[in-house]
Amino acid sequence: MNSQRLRGLIRKEFLQILRDPSAIAIAFVMPVFLLLLFGYGVSLDSKHVNIAVVVDHPTPETSSFLGSLQQSPYFNPIQYPSIRIARQAVMSHHVDGIIWLRSDFSRNLLQKKLAPVGLIVNGVDANNARILEGYIQGVWQNWMNQRALDSKSPLLAPLQGQIRIWFNPALRSQDYLVPGLIAIIMTLIGALLTALVVAREWERGTMEALMASPVTMGEILVGKLVPYFIMGMGGMLLSVAMALFLFKVPLVGSFWVLLLFSTLFLLAALGMGLLISSVARNQFVAGQIAIIVTFLPAFILSGFIFDIRSTPLPIQVITHLFAARYFVASLQTLFLAGDIWPILLWNGLALIIMALFFLGVTWRRSHKRLD
Amino acid sequence: MVGSPLQFLDVAKKFKRSKGEVQALQRLSFHLAYGQIIGLLGPDGAGKSTLMRMAAGLLLPDSGQVLVFGIDTFSPDNRIQSQIGFMPQRFGLYEDLTVQENLDLYSDLQGLNKEESQKRQQELLALTALDPFSKRYARALSGGMKQKLGLACALLRSPRLLLLDEPTVGVDPIARRELWEIIKALKEEGTTILISTAYFDEVERCDEVILLHEGQLLGQKTPGEFLSPLSNHTYLVNRKDSSRRQLQEELRFRQGVIDARIFTEGVRVLCMDLQIHPASGENWVPVPPTFEDAFVSLLGQKNVLADSPELPTRILPRHEINPEVVIEVNELKHFFGTFEAVKGVSFQVRKGQIFGLLGANGAGKTTTFRMLCGLLPVSAGILRVAGVDMRRASTSARALMGYVSQKFSLYGNLSCNQNLSFFSAAYGLKGKERRQRIDCALQEFQLSDYRDVNTDDLPLGIKQRLALACALLHDPLILFLDEPTSGVDPLARREFWQRVNGLAEGGVTILITTHFMDEAEYCDNLVLMSRGEVLAQGSPVEIRSKARNDVCSQPSMEDAFIYLIQEHEAVIRRFS
Predict the structure, then answer these.
(1) What is the three-class DSSP state of B211?
(2) Of B176, B194, B226, which one is at a domain's C-terminal end?
(3) Which distant-in-sequence residues (6+ apart) come within 8 Å of B32 by Cβ?
(4) Which alpha helices (DSSP H) does B189-236 contain, by range?
(5) What is d(CA B370, CA B341) in angstroms, rounded to the nearest whole number?
(6) Were B218 and a residue from A33, B211, B323, B465 both cysteine, which residue would form a disulfide, CB within 3.0 to 4.6 Å?
(7) Distance of alpha carbon B186 from its chain centroid, rounded?
(8) pLDDT, tens only, B408-433
């Protein structure tokens, strides 16, 4: 490895990055855009859900129940005069559900009989419907507790849950999404951008000129690895800074461990990127392959948004092939739970193996020939 | 022979393609002598680029050996690459780096220390006259300047063997002449130079020529040795009462004539033997043979005749010929922002004429061309095509035009047939007429053998034929050809010109831009442009006579081109 040749290559790469709008876009604009989108735009929480309330026979009890609904941050109750009109409101999508207190609600309640609360939920979005159902039960439970306390009478329910939420006590989905985004952003820079720039060298015939010079293939590879490693780490630091200071995501674990895991993942991503570009020698194909085998899996199969354990078994098996899976798991652990070594160790090991594998295969496959 | 700069021993190379294999080189053996300029000539697909890449160690032979200064290209170290300079076809420049940054990169890659590299870069910048442009981005350079920069990058370490892969494709005559000055200077320093080219006049400047055909060596001789068997076989023929084009058509089919092509005031004829075959009224004057004659006599029978047993004399359209003006251009201007790319150009084109637009890179030919086709708006001036004012109704005029662009604009992953049916649909042909036109095109352009082959897999010459066929599907009145022969091999070029001549005879008006000065001879009228202005216009004879002076009594078209442009640009060039 000749340091002068390497320096020349690395300098060239940085000049190209600085002057290429598409590289700037992938390395800086896209990450910021994704962070803002996922930080502000995407929320898996249900808040301020419009819900219809139909009270057949208003009593102090029903208005007390309504009061506790109103206080809940999750609901925005709207009163409807009859169940028929409320149904129409569900149909026309003005509300996501109906709470129906029938005329015998108060009587049953006072007689300590079962006092059913009718609940109709729009189940088109199954996930949202389930959350809604849970929240309403929560409100109902709270209200009952409160009544029991007020009247100093023992609670009807034989069991009482005392729920603590660990790691993300405020249940903010940003805290969960934003760390995972770091994996997406590093995939963009490490795999997609790298695959594109190498393919561009083939396309424009500059690779041929490079190879005809005394430069070695190892130098060409390292000359690509170093600049995009620095870019990828830059993207990571940018994301971490935005996560901590803009979205106020806590970093419970150690920053240095985060840095270590990011390095491992980035090496695997760069290995993928270089491998793709050694197969696809034009930018269009390289971009397509990179999106399909690195970017989309990092989005969908990494546990970044969707829990891997709830997918069918074959898909769970497939997720093990993608480095993003291990990195996302490590990130979520590091940010929200801390340096939990039993988890980190396995994921770290997997990342090391993947990085070695992809870089090794690339190294073996690359030779200074055109065919 | 140990230590020859380059030695091929029984080399064979195959490439895998989507359909089967292609034998690029077969059992090729030759060696180069020190300190010579060796030309590598052959039609498209002859294996020139493969040979160059193998010499640079970028491809390995399937069998046999390639030795560079006695070192086998199989050897894993980079000793070979530190002794050679290689300029690939597209120059291998980083377009988003400046001239200086490109040079710095390659200096680092060649391992020059700071002092050496500064000294050498200064020398090379002076040699290539790129000094004033060192801060300019490579993408903003003209074709000729890019080529010189590419060459400078290959020359940083004063290579002992310089490999140039078609360095002059798409480069104007002035830039070509400058390149040859540099090459000659390098030869003085003792560098061995292997250069592949499609220009015959360049081959004649080489010390030795390697002629390659379908991966096989047809000969390695000096240009003189190639020419000597042809002495007294070549004549310039004149006839008072007919046009050069008619005369050429007649001579081409005459017994004993291998080749006839339009040249200066007459038709150049290559005969099979020492016998001449004049008809009445013709004037035959013996002329010395050129390399083109040698090439045609060696390859002609093999290629053109085998490929196309009889070139069609009847080509698709038939229009009435009359002297009406088809294209009228008056004080035409175009601005890109504040830059005036075309500065008040005026000319007229009559029906059935072949009209050529010549000029150095950046002269404004392509801009003028695009305005004529209605692809660029007219900034100022009058432009009438077939009586239609292009500033108002360019769409209706476009139905009368056929256009073949520089890169042919074919769909690479569609077959010939699919390309034809797409373009016929795009031109609004329907039903029976459409089928007839497509069949007719396949037949007339001898594309039937290729009808199901994807365009990407076709040789350049066939692609060019297909592009021409596509442009003629709707029977246009005017045909626009934008550098249609750039990069196409000599045999395919002459076949192309036969077709174009036939079209003009059929009454189609043809506008063409070209870098090949011998092709300018085929035109009835020419416009020579430089920096957005018309420098000269008239017939080829008139233009050549403008450059006649004491130094040059019989200027060729290239001499005239260079003389007129240099005269015009002398002042501007010095200060730009």
Answers:
(1) strand
(2) B226
(3) B4, B5, B6, B7, B38, B161, B192, B194, B208
(4) 200-203, 223-227
(5) 12
(6) B211
(7) 25
(8) 788 888 988 899 999 998 888 888 88
Q: Give the amino acid at B565.
A: I
Kindly state the average pLDDT of the residues B20-42.
88
**N- to C-terminal Cα separation, chain B:** 49
Strands ordered across the beta sheet of B525-530: B401-404, B478-482, B509-513, B354-359, B525-530, B533-538
- A160 assigned to some structural domain: no
With an 8 Å Cβ cutoff, is A196 touching chain B?
Answer: no
Segment B532-546 shows an average pLDDT of: 87
Pair type for strands B339-350 and B161-164: unpaired
**C-alpha distances in Å from residue A1, one per residue of A218, A222, A346:** 7, 9, 34
A367 touches chain B (CB under 8 A): no
Query: What is the average pLDDT across B447-464?
Result: 83
Residue pair B317/B475 in contact by the 8 Å Cβ criterion: yes
| Dist CA A38 CA B70 (whole Å) | 62
The ipTM of this complex is 0.77
Label residue B100 exposed, middle or buried (CB < 10 Å: 0-12, 13-18, 19+).
Answer: middle
- Residue B91 belongs to a domain: yes
Question: Which of B59, B91, B92 minimises the CB distance to A371?
Answer: B59
State whether B278 and B206 are in the same domain.
no
Q: For B80-102, how does the pLDDT look when each residue is reduced to its tens digit (9 = 90+)? A: 888 899 998 888 899 999 999 99
Residue B302 has pLDDT above 50, yes or no: no
What is the rounded average pLDDT of the residues B43-57? 86
Measure the CA dihedral A47/A53/A58/A59, to 10°. Answer: -30
Decide if A164 is inside a domain. Answer: no
Q: Which of A128-132, A325-329, B382-386 has the lowest mean pLDDT?
A: A128-132
Distance CA A348, CA A355 (A): 10
For B17, nearest residue in chain A (alpha carbons): A371
pLDDT tens digits along A295-334: 899 888 888 888 888 888 998 999 999 999 999 999 989 9
Which residue in B has a C-alpha nearest to residue A205's C-alpha?
B92
Q: What is the pLDDT of residues A78-107, one digit of tens each?
A: 889 888 898 888 888 888 888 888 888 888
Task: Check whether residue B79 and residue B174 sit in a common domain.
Answer: yes
The beta strands (E) that lie in A89-153 are given as 97-101, 118-121
User: B316, B309 in Cβ contact below 8 A?
Assistant: no
In the chain, the amino acid numbered A38 is F
Count the neighbouring beta carbons within 10 Å of the beta carbon of residue A158: 5
Which chain B residues touch A if contact means CB-CB below 8 Å?
15, 53, 56-60, 78, 81-82, 84, 86-97, 101, 104-111, 150, 153, 163
Mark yes or no for CB contact B109/A214 under 8 Å. Answer: yes
Interface probe, candidates B105, B115, B165, chain A, greatest A C-beta count within 10 A: B105
Q: Which of A96, A120, A151 is the last residue of a domain?
A: A151
* Nearest in space to A278 (alpha carbons), one of A343, A186, A195: A195
Report which secondary-structure segment, H or E, holds B175.
Answer: helix B173-188
Alpha helices in B194-242 (DSSP H): 200-203, 223-227
B213 & B253 share domain: no
